Amino acid sequence: MGEKESETAPIWGRTRQSENNNIHPMDVESSALSEQHRSQNRSRGSSYEERGRGVKEFRSWFSWLIPCFVIANVVVFVITMYVNNCPKKSGDCFAGFLGRFSFQSTRENPLLGPSSLTLRTMGGLDVKKVVEGDEGWRLLSCNWLHGGVVHLLVNMLTLLFIGMRMEREFGFIRIGLLYLISGFGGSILSALFLRSNISVGASGAVFGLLGGMLSEIFINWTIYTNKTKLFKEGTITVKMVALSASHCSTSKFSRTWQLDKRFFTNSPLGYFINLGLGVLPGVDNFAHIGGFATGFLLGFVLLIRPHYGWINQRSDPAAKPHKYNICQAILWTVSLLLLLGWFIAGLISLFNNVDGNKHCSWCHYLSCVPTSRWSCNREPASCTTTQLGNQLSMTCLRNGKSGSYILANPSDSRINSLCVQLCR
């Protein structure tokens, strides 16, 4: 009996298994294919990541150039304040305990910085000196000067926040060129429309980074559309290389960005808010617009990456896809031509002393919109002065206001400071 049980037990077990499972050849094949698809889906991201790591365009960089730019801007500002020397040249200073580094009166410069005369001396964008004095270098030097501590702080924080992450993604060469060329483009547009005032600041270059960040999304869109998954909660998860002011990542493929619809609305909204602030008086929105437009076009040229199909198939010996698709090639070519055309036309117009306002009667509203609370008169302060003994009499030619001051042998900087205050 023991032998029978031992003989029939395996047979019973196999019979029961057959009755319960009812496995058919088609079921086995379907199950295998389903498992294969699931395995491919699980490995697709990692496979793409591994392939992406082997492409030089996806190399991870150490950010050092943008911090150097920030340090350079701060050093230049300190040197500017040293040259300004408010206690000696003006007398009416704010934060006098800083000594030589004290600021001009807030009535003259509410941004806590030097006088306009000092900014002009240090290389501020003065169209008359650029055109008539052959000082074209001011188109570059003005991007390293700032009107005050507030101006410097806002620009440098934005530059650090955006620039460092872009440098990690695209490297110091491309981001450095994007920053410098965008600042140059902003200076050209500013010089064509702001003919009388001095313009300084890195805002045009910073807006160029924003423009490049936006165009990079367009030209590398295949990478993002093929890396999108929709979860049940409705949250879109995208492995992205693009950066935004509200969502940032420092790795290429190792992290996943969870984005909702606000990502696609907040970034453009941020651009329009920053450009909208440029319509306030005292803000050079032409530098913002010129820098943004230059950076937008330059982003198509400098920040292009291989499309998804090439990365996904480049290890396949049978497939020989082009590194860039036709849309990328068209965007790259058109942007480069537009960029070259803009620089050639802009520089020729500038050095031929063309006033952009005469060819565009409404363009001045892009930089300042007059209201009952402020005026958009950008004419520089100009005054007539009369010195009788220790008494200085001054009249502003712009608004007709007059003032008398007890001053013996005032310096040019002091007279300019009083004139600016009188003409406000």
UniProtKB/TrEMBL annotation:
The subcellular localization recorded is: Membrane
Top EC class for this record: hydrolase
Cellular component GO terms held in the UniProt record: Golgi apparatus; membrane
Residues spanning the membrane? 61-82, 144-163, 175-194, 200-223, 263-280, 286-308, 329-351
**Substrates-to-products reaction catalysed:** Cleaves type-1 transmembrane domains using a catalytic dyad composed of serine and histidine that are contributed by different transmembrane domains
Give GO BP annotations, semicolon-separated.
Answer: proteolysis
Keyword annotations of the record: Hydrolase, Membrane, Protease, Serine protease, Transmembrane, Transmembrane helix
GO molecular function terms listed in the Swiss-Prot or TrEMBL record: serine-type endopeptidase activity
Pfam families (UniProt xref): Rhomboid
Segments for region (Disordered): 1-49
Tell me, what does this protein do in biology? Serine protease involved in intramembrane proteolysis.
Q: What is this protein called?
A: RHOMBOID-like protein
Species for this entry: Brassica campestris
